[in-house]
Each structure stands twice: as C-alpha cells, then as structure tokens.
Amino acid sequence: MTTRVTLAAIAGAHGVRGEVRLKLFTDSLAGLAAHDRVLVDGTPRRLLHVGGTAKSPTARLEGIADRNAAEALRGTLIEVERDALPPLGPDEYYHADLIGLDCVDGQGTLHGKVAAVENYGAGDLLDVELPTGKRALIPFRPGIADLEDGRIRLDPAFLA
After folding, report:
1. Residue-wise over 27-42: b if at least 16 C-beta within 10 A, else e?
2. Where are the domains of the chain?
C-alpha cells in the first residue's frame, strides 16, 4: 500500500497573486479542500484556499505569493499521507490501493500487476503490466476484474 496519495497536479499559475491551476484526481473540489496540510512536491504546505469550478479548479498554497512562484510549481504533485484520507466503506477502494496488486485468473495463475488505474469517463480501467513488459487496459467491472483478498481476479481474455 502506498504511503502517499496524489490529489492533484499543478497545471500552472492562475492570476498574479500566487494561485495555481489544478488537474484534480479527486472526485470533487471538496475532496481536496478537506485537507488543511498537503505535500507539494514532497514539501509540507498549508492549503489556504480551494476554488474555481470542477472544470477549472484553483488553489492557494502557503508560501506561494506571486505568479512566478506559482508557475515554478507547474507539473508538481499535491499529495497527502494515505492515513489522512477518510475511512472506506465495504466494497470501496482508493485507486492508489490497487496499484501493485497481483492479477490472477480463477485458477490463481499470475498474469501481471496493476501498474495504474485510469478513468476516461466511462468507468475505471486497470492498466495491467504483463510479465512480458507489455501492458493491457481492462475494465474494472464485476466478472472481468474483481478485487478479492488483496488481489485482482481477472478474465485473461480481456488481456489481449
């Protein structure tokens, strides 16, 4: 399990007072705004304000007071420690918890590991790194790929 979870990436400066534009990896602005302290490129900072819209989110960070400082953060990640996230309910998961899990078929044969989780709007996709080094995207849907006992049980027909 990872110790840090990425909530956003800084896309650039917003205005002249040090605000930054964000690419969110949370389900809403509230998911980021719930945290008082974050890690920006590994450096702890207070999160002073989260604003904008779901399509154009912005934030203000402690110690970033002008456009040049904000622009210098372009491409950096905003993260929190995994234990700062709210507890999960039954059958819930964080994408970060899936990365690195073994992918096996119904007989327990290893077919690869989860390298990433993507979502282009139609649902989660598991990016599975195969033993050959190639990768396959498979839908994270019941019967195709299921989270069971700390592993992903998948239908290998979807690895083509």
Report:
1. eebebbebbeebbbee
2. 4-84, 95-159
Q: What is the CATH class of 95-159? A: mainly beta
- How distant, in Å, are the alpha carbons of 38, 71, 78, 157 from that of 128? 29, 34, 25, 13
- CA distance linking residue 95 with residue 115, whole number of Å: 11
In whole angstroms, give the CA distance from residue 128 to residue 27: 23
Residues of 82-100 as b/e, b for ≥16 C-beta within 10 angstroms?
eebbeeeeeeeeebbbbbe
Find out whether 58 and 21 touch, Cβ atoms under 8 Å: yes
Class for the domain spanning 4-84? mainly beta
User: For 1-53, how does the pLDDT look when each residue is reduced to its tens digit (9 = 90+)?
Assistant: 458 889 999 999 999 999 999 999 887 899 899 999 999 999 999 999 999 98
Name 101's Cβ contacts closer than 8 Å, sequence gap at least 6.
113, 114, 147, 150, 151, 152
Taking the C-alpha atoms of residue 16 and residue 82, their distance in angstroms, rounded to an integer, is 32
Q: What is the pLDDT of residues 65-92, one digit of tens each?
A: 999 999 999 999 999 998 888 888 887 7
> What is the pTM for the complete model shown?
0.73
- Which pair of structure tokens corresponds to residue 50? 């989260």
